[in-house]
Amino acid sequence: MILSCIIRLILSGLLGALIGLEREFRSKEAGFRTHFLVAVGSALIMLVSKYGFSDILIDHNVELDPSRIAAQVVSGIGFLGAGTIIIHKQFVRGLTTAAGIWATSGIGLTIGSGMYTVGISATILVFIGLEILNKFFKNTTSHMLTIEIHSESKESIKSSLDLIKSKNIEVIAYECKEQKKENDIIYCLDIRGKVKTEENKEDIYSEVQDFENIKSIRIE
Fold this sequence. Notes:
Oligomer: single chain
Radius of gyration: 25 Å
Strand content: 15-25%
Number of domains: 2
Number of helices: 7
């Protein structure tokens, strides 16, 4: 029994680390160490829930639900997943990583319960969802775009905004501020939008950086 439990913990950790490596290569919020710990922890909780009370079950008057502890992982892991979700200036990041952590906890529970084939199959499906589908739908995804423009003329700021809108860029929000610099007034335009195009990020960057009065560009 002890050897079987150790094998389940190791296998669960390896499967979780494999999923985490994919996130690590993409420089996401939670990498292979986080996924490894989630998988091992989930498997451990399942083992405790399933076998941890066998000594008191000898008494025929005692009845326990072996799923009650493991069930808390499904809801409890949501707090960890929420920590990877970032909302910044109307952009949401980390949803895929949070879902991956949730799926990894499910894989850990599956391996911990002894359902090896199901757990390994789920890991393969997660990989398909993260990697293969990402490549298949890569050209249809939206790139988050942040542009900062500085100019001494309001007309130039307005022209720059109109030009950006005409370049297949969906402007979500923009903000214009005035800054005093010696005896002059500098108008600062902060634009946040999305680009849905078949071009890669380098091509988008090259096109946008040619705009007039560009101070900074960030594409994700």
